[in-house]
């Protein structure tokens, strides 16, 4: 790694670390925070479902504005979003006893953090195109390490000092994030003013042959026409992430059913996150030998196994075994999906493609939150896990259909 690559990789690495430290506080500890403020499981599920619904629409909307290249950029979006999370955390400290404003502010914070994730991923490809070589897998893996370390200490801290400690950690991480991104500017030259990304002119030409006009190229319907296999893949991903979000959002309830507490929640989330580091750090090496399409199918199967293990778990050991499969599921899916979108899409669709992947993830969360909260209150943890396994199995089948038969058919017709 030369000096140029080292400089930009270190900066992007710390951006990932700070983002996922806050992702841990807002997402992994959402259930604990809201339950402590007097919300029921159903209300927690409703709050997270609304957040995910807003994210599904918000991600492509913001990505579309960025793709048009008028005034909003990936960097500005990251800075503005981090500032909002900082302000929201401060506000929650002063209204700790009011459920309605807590609900409203938390939903917005949860939404915003999901919305700007694809823009942070897109920064990697944008800066790389500008000559700022970044080791994406290593940076993303260190982000998971940041999540892991935060979770490890936060579990004990919440038990000892209460849930407001979550807000103080978020404030610290986001304040540092705003400062870091402000100074993390790519060099400006003639090359960077052009469209960034790899050459996919063949896909673009096929879009024109299918009747997509110049004015429609950034539209939603034209996107579906150009990449039908990708849209089916997103459906499969959403079904797989139904189970993934179910485990993450209601993990404290699962852990309590196995005899654990907030401390064990910290250990469990630490384990799954720290195991992501080596996988994401070396994913670039793996992708040179195994297609991202094969890796996506492998990750979908791993999501299924990870969820199925919990049905038979009788102690925290089963939870830890399940969390270990994070290194084959989420840790493989995220970078493989990022490269999948970047390699199979035209320059003008790349940010939108990243956004749609995250929209699929959050869409899975919508249904998970709406369904699982009610199931927990009515039938308990085992029934919730059983439904999660069934939905994930269907997701694996849909991913396989999208990745292999549909893409094979696309190649033949072209």
Summarize the structure.
80% of the residues lie in helices and 0% in strands.
Q: How would you characterize this protein structure?
A:
The structure is a single chain. With 414 residues, this protein is mainly α. It has a single domain (3-413), classed as Growth Hormone, Chain: A (Up-down Bundle), CATH 1.20.1250. 80% of the residues lie in helices and 0% in strands. It has helices at 3-28, 30-36, 41-67, 74-94, 99-115, 117-129, 136-161, 164-183, 201-209, 220-226, 228-249, 251-257, 262-274, 276-281, 283-287, 292-311, 316-324, 330-343, 350-378, 381-413. Helix 1 packs parallel to helix 7 (136-161) and helix 4 (74-94) runs antiparallel to helix 6 (117-129).
CATH first level: Mainly Alpha
Unreliable sequence segments: 190-218
Please outline the major beta sheet: none
Determine the CATH topology: Growth Hormone, Chain: A
Helix content: over 70%
Q: Indicate the mean pLDDT.
A: 81
Element string (H = helix, E = strand): HHHHHHHHHHHHHHHHHHHH
> Termini distance?
39 Å
Number of helices: 20
Looking at the overall shape, the CATH architecture is: Up-down Bundle
User: Could you tell me the number of beta strands?
Assistant: 0
Supply Rg.
Answer: 21 Å
Number of domains: 1
Helix and strand content put the structural class at mainly alpha
Fourth-tier CATH superfamily name: MFS general substrate transporter like domains
Q: How much of the residues is beta strand, in percent?
A: under 5%
Shape: globular
Layout of secondary structure:
Layout lengths: L2 H26 L1 H7 L4 H27 L6 H21 L4 H17 L1 H13 L6 H26 L2 H20 L17 H9 L10 H7 L1 H22 L1 H7 L4 H13 L1 H6 L1 H5 L4 H20 L4 H9 L5 H14 L6 H29 L2 H33 L1
């Amino acid at each position: 790694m030369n000096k140029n690559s080292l400089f930009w990789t270190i900066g992007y690495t710390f951006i990932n670390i700070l983002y996922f430290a806050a992702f841990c506080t807002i997402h992994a500890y959402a259930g604990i925070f809201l339950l402590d403020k007097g919300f029921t499981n159903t209300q927690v599920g409703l709050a997270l479902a609304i957040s995910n619904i807003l994210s599904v629409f918000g991600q492509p909307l913001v990505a579309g504005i960025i793709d048009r290249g008028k005034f909003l950029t990936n960097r500005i979006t990251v800075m503005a979003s981090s500032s909002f999370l900082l302000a929201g955390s401060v506000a929650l400290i002063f209204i700790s006893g009011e459920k309605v404003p807590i609900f409203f502010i938390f939903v917005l914070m949860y939404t915003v953090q999901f919305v700007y994730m694809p823009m942070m991923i897109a920064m990697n490809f944008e800066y790389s195109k500008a000559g700022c070589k970044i080791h994406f897998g290593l940076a993303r893996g260190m982000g998971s390490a940041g999540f892991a370390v935060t979770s490890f200490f936060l579990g004990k801290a919440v038990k000892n000092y209460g849930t407001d400690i979550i807000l103080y950690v978020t404030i610290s991480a986001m304040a540092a994030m705003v400062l870091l991104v402000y100074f993390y500017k790519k060099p400006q030259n003639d090359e960077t003013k052009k469209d960034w990304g790899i050459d996919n002119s063949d896909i673009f030409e096929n879009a024109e042959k299918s009747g997509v006009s110049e004015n429609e190229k950034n539209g939603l319907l034209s996107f579906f026409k150009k990449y039908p296999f990708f849209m089916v893949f997103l459906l499969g991903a959403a079904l797989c992430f139904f189970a993934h979000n179910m485990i993450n959002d209601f993990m404290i309830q699962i852990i309590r059913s196995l005899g654990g507490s907030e401390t064990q929640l910290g250990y469990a989330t630490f384990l799954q996150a720290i195991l992501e580091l080596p996988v994401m750090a070396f994913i670039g090496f793996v992708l040179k030998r195994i297609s991202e399409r094969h890796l996506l199918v492998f990750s979908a199967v791993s999501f299924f196994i990870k969820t199925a293990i919990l049905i038979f778990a009788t102690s925290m050991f089963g939870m830890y075994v399940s969390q270990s499969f994070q290194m084959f599921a989420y840790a493989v899916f995220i970078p493989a999906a990022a490269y999948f979108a970047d390699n199979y899409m035209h320059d003008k669709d790349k940010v939108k493609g990243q956004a749609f992947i995250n929209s699929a993830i959050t869409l899975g969360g919508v249904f998970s939150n709406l369904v699982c909260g009610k199931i927990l209150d009515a039938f308990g943890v085992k029934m919730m896990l059983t439904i999660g396994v069934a939905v994930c199995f269907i997701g694996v089948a849909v991913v396989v259909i999208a990745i292999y038969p549909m893409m094979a058919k696309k190649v033949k017709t072209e």
